[in-house]
Amino acid sequence: MPPKLFVYLSKKLSVPNCKEILCVSWNYNKGYIAAGGSDGQLRVFRLPPESEKNPKSPFHSNQSLEGHGATTRVNVVCWNEVYQKLTSSDDSGLIIVWMSHNDSWYEEMINNRNKSSVVQLQWSHDGTKIAIAYEDGQVIVGSVDGNRLWSKEIGSHLAAVTWSTDSSLLLFGLTDGEVHAYDLGGNFVLKVPMICIDSVELEAALSKDLKKDVIVSMEWFVPAFPCRDSDTRTIVDGAGGPGTLLPRVINSDTFASETYVFRGRVPEDRPRFLVAYQHGIIQLMRNESDTSPVICRLPSTVIILCRWAPDGTVFAVGGYQNDLPEDERNVMHIISAYGVKLQTMKLPPKNFTGFSWQGNGLRIAIVIDNNLYLAYIKPGYKWTYCNQTVVYSYERVDAYEDVMVFYETKMDEVYTRQIRELCAVTAFEDYCVIVSRVDEVGGAYIMQLCNSIGTPVDSKSLNITPLYVAMNATVVIAASQDSFVVWHYTVPRKTALDAYKQPPKQQNDTVHHIDQLKDPKLSDLRKANRPVDYIKSICAGTNFFLISRESGALHRYGLPDAQLQYRYQLGYAAEMMALNCNNQRLAVVTTHNTFRFFDIRENSASVVSNFERRDVWDMKWDTEKEDTIAIMEKSRMIVIQGVEPEEPVPNNGYICCFKDLTVRTVQIHDMVKDPENPDKSFVTDIEVKTLRNAKELLEGMKISEANAFIEKNSHPKLWSLLAKVALNRLDLKTAEHAFVKLKDYAGIRLLKRLEQIQSDPLRKAEVCIFLGDLDAAERIYFENDRRDLAIDMRKKMHDWFRILQILQTSSGAGDDLLMQQAWKHVGDYFMERQKWQTAAKHYEHGQNYSELATCYLMMDDYARLDTLAQHLPDGHEVLKKLGEMFANAGLCEQALDCYIRCELVTEALDVCIRLNQWDKAVELSKKYHLQDVQGLLSKYAEHLTGSNEKTLAAVQLYRKAAKFLQAARIVFEIAKDERIKQAPPLRLKKLYVIGALLVEQYHEQNKAQIAKNKGSNNVSNATIALQGILSEDNTLSMEESKMIDTAWRGAEAFHFLMLAHKQLYQGQYDLAMKTCLTVVEYEDLLDPMEIFSLLALASCVARQFSVCSKAFMKVESMPTLTEDEKELYSKLSLQIFLRYPPKDTRLGKVECTNCDAMIPDYSLVCPNPSCDTRFPVCIASGRPLYDYQFWLCPSCKHRAYEQEIQSYKFCPLCHYEI
């Protein structure tokens, strides 16, 4: 959306002792102005800040620099922004570099070539080099310290010089209109394509006595560098982009300064290189090789000078227009970087020689004769105002995005939102519309309806470019150059502003063309013959909206159908439009800042005669009175009633609203300097003269005169003031008259109540309540000993904080109950704001245990919840809530305690089942004779089948329910299935160990139960164990008894199998053979072929060929072998035993622990038939255990040699920690 930039002349300053000013340059960083003129005059001065008004001294400082000859003309001045040096040159070719010290300027360097005059001086953007272009084609490039870097004769007369963006190229404008680029060494690089001069008609140029190729300005925009030696830095106050206007503020990490200079990024697609020709042609390029530049043509205009604004979004063009009278020829155009002319300002007559921008882009210094004129710029900021909130935007450099700031002026609160690319923003009453670019499938743009804190409440995609946006209570109108869309938005709640029903949704997607005609023939005729007439502005009324066009035509469209109702001819292109509160008068600001009124009827629009204002750049109608409007004219605010203006009020802010006879303005340009920290001082409320006069009369208690004055100047705000004063004086008749004028039914009812009250103090208290002065009403009640009325008043206002204070400082009947109620309401206040700690204190005082429990829960303070539960008596209603809280947190014991204390045993049982606390569930079921928990457990376990993971979950379920045998049975079944599937031995061992440990837990459970029944203090452990075995025999089935007896057998089998492999790979062949002999005992669990093959291998490498021979015999007799396999094993055994006889090479003997016979050290059973003793096996080494002293595992009850187990931290079999 092209923001409306306004420019106007405000001040005229006469430079003393200067006959004629020829050039001017404004220092961006420090604010100095250098002006060169005739008679060798060169002056440097500063303007005072805007806040300092001193007509006697228009200059803050003013110094005349002497160095140029008295007969010369100083025609070139240039600032070095980085090193703060001033360079000047006169027509004799003398160049002087000036430096400052303590705000005074002195000569630093002088250069005089004495051959030709200087056409232009240009410092590089970093301030380290200077390029000097002489008229005769000589170029000198020097450094900041005065050294000459190189010089060159270009070979053609020069007209201008400038540096490229990164100062890597020097571009020279020649007198024939061409532009050449040279590198830093003075070597020619390229010829810049100047398309604009190739398309000029030579005859048209010569007819004006002008050459088509005279370059008057050539500039490359680069944001000004900060001062190198400055003690302060500048804050960015501008940004660029299509559709933006200076200055957009960039929030950067810089220090505050007196001026605010742009330091932001420049979009890649925005032109930044400008070449202006004298005959009114300007070429705008993105780079030196741009083959598709933007060409701007100013017909009948002779350009004197062009200069970029400090933020590069616009540039100013100064010159004179041939087709205007002599005294009106001097003009200045403000043109966007994309070549769109935004504003034209007429300048005073006489000799217009130059101009320069201020660093913040808000003022332009214009030189005419020996006078300095200040033109003020009012940028088109993207901002709006809704519901006491200033909404504005700034651009973050680090994130490359726009930030919307919502500054709530009443509460002084700030809210922000990130927007990708902001296009436009507007508002109506409580809501604002933000239009941004999204480039999504639904549309290139999106309109978001937001409340005053930036929360979106509705949105709409858009496929047209939203250049203009307006809204009313029900619709948003977005328009491009030739089309518009009407969006019927919705808000979360219905309001009294709904003037009609919402139209069908499909109307929101209709794109209306501004010249859409019902007759196709007329439409074709329009396309063929009519010139392009674009949309200029739009505004919305209650049930219609207006579109202004560049030709001065005004179209009226009805709502909600968006049908064209009438075409008016205003005769002026409206830059801004606004309808008054009754939609019958239109205020218009034209492109030349002329302000006019038009009376709008359904079929006519007539200009209000004898009324016109100039230099108007902002306006806002009174929301309640149809003939009053506030306008900003230059640097003052004027209220116009009818057509009569009031006395101007100095103010240069933007108008937020005009309501209750008060105009609110905001200093947006100050606010966006530090956009994240707005200040209330930037917002100003200005009362109109009518309101001030009425207040003076009422303050003087001239009620009758005030009544007559308000009758004459009727306004709701004035009647409200009169009613307030009359009520304070208990003048009921006057108050009733004011309320009738206001149509205030509540006020009339108040008067009826006052008539029924006999006591004047109590009447006064009622008036104070009506006017919102509750403290005064309370004082009156207490003075009249009516504490009860004071409390009732605070109750109606829901001011429980004050009620609590009253109850704590005074006493009365029924205070205890009211005190509890007050504590609760105050606690609710803090609870709604999630201040749980403070709310809990108030609930505790008021004994509001339910809310107190909620606070403890939100604080995750379960210890205090438990304390609260213990504090409550049995049967309290809050115990159930506490039980639910504990249950949801998984705290089963606390939940059971709460449920049982409030006799909710069924809920307690459900909690046990839900939390898988089946042991407690069984105990509860038995104690309170509840439903069969065993059946529930079985049904639940049935669902946990299918995969091993689910089945193991059933194991966990049975284990928690203390059903260890059922859990062990399931584990053994899983192990059996896995064994059939040939799972890894380690997994099988783990499964068998789990099952065996569950059996051990079963034994421990039986012993604990018997000890509990018999009394553990009087019964020995042996007796308990014996009774446990006997009780098991009575209750267990044969299958369960077998499972218990062989619980560790599976774990042992796979443990010794893995141990044998480990020993074999570690080279412990003798131990491996002994372990394999142990593994032979588990043929029912392991593959016999695998067992005896392993034994044969281990005994062979251990050279125990007797054992090896027996192993081979077993292998060859396996029924699973084929005939070929048997033949192979037979050949292998023959090869071994033909070489080695089947005898053991080492025969170790040990003494049997029972019969004292000497037996082989690998015997698991004593070979003596009369003994037949079976020896235990060491689970650490796999050897038979012959020692009388050994280590016994407390968990699995297996044994090991003491010397073997010393190197283990855990039991090798069950992994019990040693």
Structure description:
Its main location: cytoplasm. It is found in: Cytoplasm, Cytoskeleton, Cilium basal body. The model is unreliable at 201-211, 230-258, 495-507 and 518-528 (pLDDT under 50). Helix 14 packs antiparallel against helix 15 (836-845) and helix 24 packs antiparallel against helix 25. With 1218 residues, the protein is an alpha+beta fold. The strands form 16 sheets. Strands 19, 30, 31, 32 and 33 form a five-stranded mixed beta sheet that branches. Strands 50, 51, 52, 53 and 54 form a five-stranded antiparallel beta sheet that branches. Strand 12 (138-143) and strand 13 form a beta hairpin. Helices cover 31% and strands 28% of the residues. The longest helix is centred in the C-terminal third of the chain and has 30 residues, at 985-1014.
Key phrases:
61 strands, 1218 residues, 5-stranded mixed β-sheet
